[in-house]
From TrEMBL:
Assembly and interaction partners: Heterotrimer of A, B and C subunits.
Task of the protein: Allows the formation of correctly charged Asn-tRNA(Asn) or Gln-tRNA(Gln) through the transamidation of misacylated Asp-tRNA(Asn) or Glu-tRNA(Gln) in organisms which lack either or both of asparaginyl-tRNA or glutaminyl-tRNA synthetases. The reaction takes place in the presence of glutamine and ATP through an activated phospho-Asp-tRNA(Asn) or phospho-Glu-tRNA(Gln).
Alphabetized UniProt keyword annotations: ATP-binding, Ligase, Nucleotide-binding, Protein biosynthesis, Transferase
InterPro entries: Asn/Gln-tRNA_amidoTrfase_suB/E, Asn/Gln-tRNA_Trfase_suB/E_cat, Asn/Gln_amidotransferase, Asn/Gln_tRNA_amidoTrase-B-like, GatB, GatB_C_1, GatB_Yqey_C_2, Gln-tRNA_amidoTrfase_suB_CS
Name of the featured protein: Aspartyl/glutamyl-tRNA(Asn/Gln) amidotransferase subunit B
Residue ranges annotated for the Asn/Gln amidotransferase domain, each copy included: 202-348
Reactions this protein catalyses: L-aspartyl-tRNA(Asn) + L-glutamine + ATP + H2O = L-asparaginyl-tRNA(Asn) + L-glutamate + ADP + phosphate + 2 H(+); L-glutamyl-tRNA(Gln) + L-glutamine + ATP + H2O = L-glutaminyl-tRNA(Gln) + L-glutamate + ADP + phosphate + H(+)
Lineage summary: Archaea, Methanobacteriati, Methanobacteriota, Stenosarchaea group, Candidatus Methanofastidiosia
GO molecular function: ATP binding; glutaminyl-tRNA synthase (glutamine-hydrolyzing) activity; transferase activity
Regions that span the bilayer: none
Entry keyword annotation includes RNA-binding: no
The organism's place on the tree of life at top rank: Archaea
One GO-annotated biological process of the protein: glutaminyl-tRNAGln biosynthesis via transamidation
Length: 352
């Protein structure tokens, strides 16, 4: 089920009234605004939240806004069976819209259960207390004090004009999601994470040109995004480049870098922009694959843990995992896992 859009009002910001201080702030006066009026198709706070997220993402892709904060305000209308419509003005976040609607449903039900009536009014949402407060009563359109201007007439877009506009629009997040799933065989959860940020989705596509798209998608949507969020950065404001991810995946696939150490590498690259080989050498992250080197480490671990060796010989498979963990600790995660397990089994078999 979709949400219909009835009208789009092209306006200018007249300023802002600070309710708590009783002051008027004219710093935003004259800034262009577009008010989108939707049909009454939204049936729950959850649906309102999802609709707003999709709308903001589409506006972000169009370059109309950059992020949610300060760019969008919502006037929310809500009514329940047995009551009149209530308008909640200037809610400035998706979370605020959801919380305001949840509160109003509870409040209006409580009023009706006590035998009261819901009268048409405008309310303010207090972000601090997460409740709505009465602002003013409204009975008819005249109460809004709209002043008709004969020089401002409705603007209609012809089908031809609409087609022309559609032809020059950038790819929408919904179309990009469908394409990513079909073109790169990525799972829906990974794709949702990628397209949630226009820059991240473009970054991923650059990575996918020079590396396995499945691996590139996984690293960009999970570890990279987590590291960026931790540092309050985006791919456009950090030092990381698509080549960093492609090189890192290449080293992992060649068995020269462990997944564990790759996660640390990403955290450093985001801050420094250093080349992957440079960081690997600096942190001694190159994976140990030499059999001679690994055998020496295995022999040391087995000497230091004779009970685990005896337990394995007695049929306790968990002892193998214990010894492997000791090797991992001894090498700081640089031992090649598959080669280490094979050599460990061989050594234990020879000891039997």
């Amino acid at each position: 089920m979709g949400v219909g859009i009835w009208e789009i009002h092209i306006e200018e910001d007249p300023g802002r009234y600070e309710l708590r201080e009783g002051k008027v702030d004219l710093n935003r006066c004259g800034i262009p605004l577009a008010e989108i009026v939707t049909a009454p198709d939204i049936k729950s706070p959850e649906y309102a939240r999802e609709f707003l997220r999709d709308l903001l993402l589409s506006l972000d892709y169009l370059g109309v806004i950059r992020g949610e904060s300060g760019s969008v305000r919502a006037d929310v209308n809500i009514s329940i069976m047995g009551g009149n419509r209530i308008e909640i003005k200037n809610v400035n976040s998706v979370k605020g819209v959801y919380k305001a609607l949840k509160y109003e449903i509870v409040r209006q039900k409580a009023v009706l259960q006590r035998g009261g009536t819901i009268t048409m009014e405008t309310r303010h949402f207090d972000e601090g207390s997460m409740i709505t407060k009465a602002m003013r009563k409204k009975e008819t359109l005249a109460d809004y004090r709209y002043i008709p201007d004969p020089d401002l007439v409705p603007f209609y877009v012809s089908p031809e004009g609409l087609s022309r506009i559609e032809s020059i629009l950038p790819e929408s997040p919904h179309n990009k999601k469908k394409r990513f799933i079909e073109e790169y065989s990525l799972g829906e959860e990974i794709v949702d994470a990628l397209i949630s940020d226009l820059y991240l989705s473009d970054f991923f596509e650059e990575c996918a040109k020079d590396s396995n798209p499945l691996e590139a998608g996984k690293w960009c949507a999970t570890e990279l995004k987590r590291r960026l969020n931790e540092k309050n950065l985006s791919v456009s404001t950090s030092m990381i480049t698509p080549k960093h991810i492609s090189d890192m995946i290449d080293f992992i696939e060649k068995g020269e870098l462990s997944v564990k150490n790759a996660k640390w590498i990403i955290g450093d690259v985001v801050d420094t922009g250093e080349e992957i080989p440079t960081l690997m050498s600096k942190k001694n992250f190159y994976q140990i694959r030499s059999e001679d080197t690994l055998i020496k480490i295995l022999e040391k671990v087995m000497r230091e843990n004779p009970k685990a060796v005896l337990d394995y010989k007695s049929g306790n498979q968990n002892a193998l995992h214990f010894l492997f963990g000791k090797v991992v600790n001894e090498t700081e995660g640089r031992a090649d896992p598959s080669k280490t397990i094979k050599l460990l089994k061989d050594k234990l078999y020879m000891e039997a």
